Every structure is written in structure tokens, then in C-alpha cells.
Amino acid sequence: MNVMANRPRRLESYVGGAWVAGAKEGVPLLDASTGAPVAFIDSSGIDFKAILAHGREKGGPALRRMSFHERAAMLKALGQALMEGKEEFYALSTATGATRADSWVDIEGGIGTLLSYASKGRRELPNTRVLLDGDVEPLSKDNTFAAQHILTPLQGVAVHINAFNFPCWGMLEKLAPTLIAGVPAIIKPASQTAYLTELMVRRIIETGILPEGALQLVCGSVGDLLDHVEGQDAVTFTGSAATGQRLKTHKAIIENSVRFTMEADSLNAAVLGLDAAPGTEEFDLFVKEVTREMTVKAGQKCTAIRRIIAPRAYSEALIESLGARLGKTSIGNPADEAVRMGPLASLDQREEVRARIRDLSADAEIVSGDPDNPSVQSGDAVAGAFLNPVLLYCDRPGSARAVHDVEAFGPVSTVMPYDTAEEAVDLARRGKGSLVASVFTNDPGFAEEVVLGLAPFHGRVMIGNRVSAKSSTGHGSPLPGLVHGGPGRAGGGEELGGMRGVKHYMQRTAIQGAPTMLSAVTGRWLPGAEARAGGEHPFRKSLAELKIGDQLITATRTVTLDDIEHFANFTGDTFYAHMDEEAAKANPFFDGRVAHGYLIVSFAAGLFVDPAPGPVLANYGVDNLRFLTPVNPDDTLQVQLTCKEINPRANAEHGEVRWDCQVTNQLGATVAQYDVLTMVAKTRE
Q1: Is residue 350 within 8 Å of residue 387, measured between CB atoms?
Q2: What's the CA gap between 18 and 212, in Å, rounded?
Q3: What CA–CA distance (Å, rounded) separates 235 from 185?
Q4: 3-state secondary structure of 33
Q5: Residues 566, 546: Cα–Cα separation, whole Å
Q6: Which 3 state secondary structure label does DSSP give 21?
Q7: What is the structure's pLDDT at 432?
Q8: Which pLDDT band, with edges at 50, 70 and 90, does 66 fall under?
Q9: Out of 43, 417, 549, 639, which residue is the most buried by the measure of CB atoms under 10 Å away?
Q10: The Aldehyde dehydrogenase domain covers which part of the protein (predicted)?
Q11: What is the distance between the alpha carbons of residues 282 and 129, in angstroms, rounded to a whole number?
């Protein structure tokens, strides 16, 4: 179905497994460039309590039956399907005021986040339904009582209330970690651009990839939905601080201790280094970055640069350079390929930005751009929500207030001069917490002082200079592997950050008990748990035959002085502790010559490896290697190798097996311990 063919149309919500229109005709949503109606939005008549119940009763159980790898594969398939149909999203995105470049960030950036989480889920998480958090905590000397932290999916619903500026990315960056965690989601997009979110959700549902109830969509008001959230639910919000605070203090959220994550107003700063004088590469990079952040998405980004903090001696040159670049920005209908900046999302949004510019004018003067007389090369300057980029200058930012308190959510930024690095940090921190700050400098000392000063007040700090210029993702780009959020005014929450974002939708629980019981719950063997030694060598078993706790107790091998000297000469490792008896005795850790640590590991492998071809395909690593007791000539080594964890790979003929390796001496003391990682076939040939 081509939704563009019947504009304007009534948006529908996808709830309870069906597309449902609101009971009323709805509020018109207008094209940001022309003022023409795009769609009508309304959600009246929807039973919001039933929506939550549908997610909890249908979507949650279906997702929890899947492993992390299965959910990751689901996201991969979904991302690939959306990428194939991306041009349809681009075509509708122009109505939001987004250029092709703006839309790329929203559409392909969002789909890319989905695919990134799919990849991370397969690579970084086990193919299980329970996630272990940290190492085992021994609670008794005889290994009869221990504890392990685990993470399990919340058994409620994640309600995602999103902002208007990124109708695709804003949904997908929250949806990806939610689904990987095994929790269903309800998406509530901001009304101004909800038609693009609705289109993408339609295409998602049409794929049939997600289980029923895993994703629901509300187009319009959420009504009394938040009245019905419970302790197993989570709510995330992106938007204004005032709205976020109102939601955060909702009666049901407080009484039920509902997890609440907020990303709110953020007066992000960019700091030009004292070394970055006009004519340096860093000065030029700074001008380009500020210009880009002011004009991409018409400055309607939560990460856009709002405060430009620059050395006082360079401020005049900076204003001149920025004014020249901003003045060349082509403004108009984003459907026009020559246009580099489109309109704001709506006329109401433009009036909001103009009002905030008036507020900023209490502390600053406009030095570039006229907010009241937009100059466009296409589109309707009256009916469209166009606004020229506006640059202000505040000469005394240390005594100003508005420039540190007021955010104009559009192509607006204020230059603020400073004299010392300490003053630059102070000015940035007056924003009371931001999503991101950037520092442009080629001076490591300046970078250290400023970044460490900014870090407690920011979720992310980017350092820009000539070395990283070509590869840098820039000031304003949240990335799937990095946290997105910030303290204080920015909302105090975190999103993304790789697997950190997944854990937000899981409950951390400390499990205590006998090691055998813990192994049964967690799927990982730990010291003190039952083990099965004897019989067939564990390396002769396929994944279908191998069990957690299968164990090998090896024969012994005595380490000789000739072994140590041969290993030293063969490898070139002639460190004095291996070769010089008197020097080794002077070392407080040894009482004479000792064996190389890697000799111990090599001898251990010789003791436990079964040499014949079989189910074990490869050794691909060692984790957590520690040498605990020195090995002297004539010490005798023995290995206890235990199957610790089995992790089958989805859609592959093999899986990963983690082995606990304990190397002891003739006195029973542990001389080395580590995890051996092998790839093992799922079945014997």
C-alpha cells in the first residue's frame, strides 16, 4: 500500500493486534514547507489499559521464550526489511521539513541502530534467556554457599514517548535494546511528525517478523495510559524538561516505582581551545562543526550546539567566519535538491523558537540572521515554518543567565568569550547538565583539563582536532555503542550505550545458594558445583553430548630447569627471574628461578588437549588468566578442566564452550587459573 497516494489521511494506532482509528476526525498535521495538510491524528476511544494488558499477556511471553540470539536475529531481519523499503520513508520525510541528509540521520541512522544492536546481541550476549552480571561471589570458605547476580527481562511493557525531531530514529533507538532484552514496547510519537512513524510501524507489522504484542503504536494522546503502569513496566521520555518532570511525577509512576528515563532540554556547548587561533586547522574544523550543528535538521536536535565558548581574542574572527558560512546556507523546501536546510517542524515550533530568541536577547545581541524575515529559495515563506540561522553574542557570559537557561530549539546559537581554561569549563557547566559537549584543540594539556572538568556534567564529550577530522562522527551524533543521555537538566537518564541500554529493561537479582543449585539456574558451572570426571574425554563430545560440569583430571608433569631454559631460548623471553638465580631470589615475589607463566599455560594445554580430530574445532581465546603461585624447577603440575558454559551459535553448526581451567602444583596450590574458549561442533560427524 502506498500511503502517499491518499493524503491527507487519518492516522491509525496499532493496538491489541489491529489498526484502529480514533473516534474523532482528529487534528490536522501540516507539511512544514507548504502548510498543506498531510494527515489527521486522534486516539480518542482507545482502551489504554487494554493496550498494556495486551503487551504484558501476549508480547512479553512470546519474547521471553526466545533467546538473546533469536531476538537479535529478529532485529537483523527487521532492519534489513526496513532498509529495502527506505525510499518510501524518505519520500514522506520531506513533509517534516527534513532534507535528504537530515532524513538519512533519522531513517538510515535509526535502521543502522537496529542492525547494530542485532550484531551486538549476537556477538556480546550468550545464546540464553538469562544474562549473568559479574563474577560469582563466594560466601563460604568450603564452597558450599555462593551468590551470582543475574539479569532477567521485566515482565511488563516499555512505554516510549518520543519527540518530533526524529520520528524514525527516536523510535528505533529505544525499540532495539527493549526487544533484545525481551520486553514488548508501546510507541507514542510526537504528533507533529507521527505520520512518518506510523508509516514505518506499518511496514514493520507487515513483515510479520515480530511476535504479536511485541510492538504497539499510539498516534495521538496517550489518554490515561500512565494511570495503569505497574512496577514491571518502564517509561522513557524525550522532549521538554517541563513535560518530562510532569510525567516523572505521575502518581502511578511514583507509587509503583516505575523505571523512568528522561532525555530533556540540553544547552550543549562547543569549546574552542586556546591553541585554536584563526588560521589553525582546529579553528576551521570548529567553524564547520558549529555551522553543521546549527543547520542539520534546522537545529532541531537534542544534541545541537547551543553555546559556543571561544577565547575572547578569537571571538570577532569566529563570528565573522560563522556568519559568512551561515549566510550561504540555502533554505527552502527539502524536496528541492539544492536546499541545505529545511523549515522547522511546524509554525507553532517556529513561534516558540522566536520567543526563545527574544528571551536570549536579554543577555545577548543578534550578530547574524534575522529571525523575523526568512529568506527562502523554495517553499512558502508564509505558510512554511522557515527560519534563518541566528547567531547571538553574549559579551559577559559569566554574569548572564538567559544564555545558560534558555534553549531555542532551532538554528540558534550564542557565542560566549572566555579567557582561561578554568573559565571555559565554568561556562559550560552553567548549563546544569547536558547531553554532549565538544572541545576542539590540538593541545593535550588543554584537552585533559577541560574534558575532566566537563565530564561530570555531560553524558558524552567529543574531542575534535586535525588527527580525527576525517573519521570523527561529530559533535551531534549519538552512537549505538555510546551512552546517550546526560545529568541534571538533560534528564538524568541514559539510553543506548551498547548492552547498557539492554540492561535498563532487565531486573538484576542476586541469587544465593549451593553452587550446584546456582549452576542449574544460571547455566554456568562454578567451583563447588557437582562435576563429572572420568569416562570419555570431554573434547570427544559434541555440543549435543557435552554437559555443564563434565570434567577432566589430567596426568601430571614435572617442570625441570632444562624446560625453563629451553623455553627461554626458544621464545627469546630471558627475563632475569627465569635465568638468574641470585637476581630471582632478590625479587620479593620469588625464592629462586621460576617458570614462565606461558610455559605453565603451554604445559597445561599439553596435559588436557586430546590430539585427535573431533568435535573441538578450534581454541579461540583465553579469558581472565591469572598466575597465582610461582612454579619452581621440580614442581609438578596437574590440570582440572571443567565444562563451564555452553553457548550454541544460532544458524551455525558449532557453538562456543567455556572451560574452567585450574592448574595446581604437587601441594595442591593453584598456580594458574583461566577460562579456555573453544569452538565445538553441534554434532559428531
Answers
A1: yes
A2: 10
A3: 10
A4: coil
A5: 37
A6: strand
A7: 93
A8: very high
A9: 43
A10: 19-505
A11: 48
Whether the CA torsion 569, 571, 576, 580 is positive or negative: it is: negative
On whether the CB atoms of residues 198 and 217 are closer than 8 A, the answer is: yes
The grid coordinates of residue 370 equal 534575522
At residue 4, the pLDDT reads 45
Q: 501, 536, 103: which is closest to 296 by C-alpha?
A: 103
Cα dihedral sign, 394-398-402-404: positive
Q: What is the Cα gyration radius of the chain?
A: 30
Nearest to 78 by CA among 90, 88, 70: 70
94-128 burial, b at 16+ Cβ within 10 Å, e below that, comes to: bbbbbbeebbebbbbbbbbbbbbbbebbbeebbbb
Q: Is the pLDDT of residue 625 over 90?
A: yes
Kindly state the DSSP code that residue 313 receives in the 8-state scheme. G
How many Å apart are CA 523 and CA 509, to the nearest integer?
15
DSSP structure string for 463-474: EE-TTTTTT---
Active site residues per annotation: 263, 302
Q: CA 40, CA 28: separation in Å to the nearest integer? A: 4
Q: Look at the chain and count its residues.
A: 685
Task: State the DSSP H helix or E strand holding residue 90, giving kind and residue range, or none if neither.
Answer: helix 86-93
253 grid coordinates: 509512576
Strand 307-311 versus strand 234-238 pairing type: unpaired
Pairing of strands 37-41, 483-486: unpaired
Grid cell locating 528: 563447588
Could you give the CA distance from residue 75 to residue 116 in angstroms, rounded to a whole number? 9
Write the pLDDT tens digit of every residue in 388-410. 999 999 999 999 999 999 999 99
Read off the C-alpha cell for 27.
487534528
Three-state SS string over 626-672 comes to: EECCCCCCCCEEEEEEEEEEEEECCCCCEEEEEEEEEEECCCCCEEE
Q: In the 8-state DSSP scheme, what is residue 234?
A: E
Distance CA 603, CA 608 (A): 9
CB 89 within 8 Å of CB 200: yes
- Supply the pTM of this predicted model: 0.89
Instruction: Retrieve residue 210's grid coordinates.
Output: 515480530
Domains of the chain from N-terminus onward: 9-263 (3.40.605.10), 269-467 (3.40.309.10), 531-681 (3.10.129.10)
Q: Tell me, what's the pLDDT at 308? A: 97
Mapping DSSP to helix (H, G, I), strand (E, B) and coil, where does residue 390 land? strand
